[in-house]
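Look at one such:
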Amino acid sequence: MQEIYDLMAANPYSEYFWYNNEDNTVEIDYDKFDDLINEKGYQNAKEELSRLEKLGSEVREIEKQTIGLRNDFENLADAWRDSYLDLENRVLDAIVSRQQDIIDN
């Protein structure tokens, strides 16, 4: 994310396009973008836009991976909890069984 912020801070074309943090998209003012007359400026703006779009794609991919890791962690936590509860129940059953054996004998 910091890379996107740094890129946008140094972006001389921020009046033409910018990164929307709320929905992780590149916003473009096509009217202003089309009004660029200087071909070199236009080419530089296109290159910056391409870099920004690539970074946006990378951010979305990282978010997907983060969600996947969060889900994996939650699944592991659930499995650990279930294993712990199963062990706890077996220990309690063994204690009850032992106490019953003592009472019966």
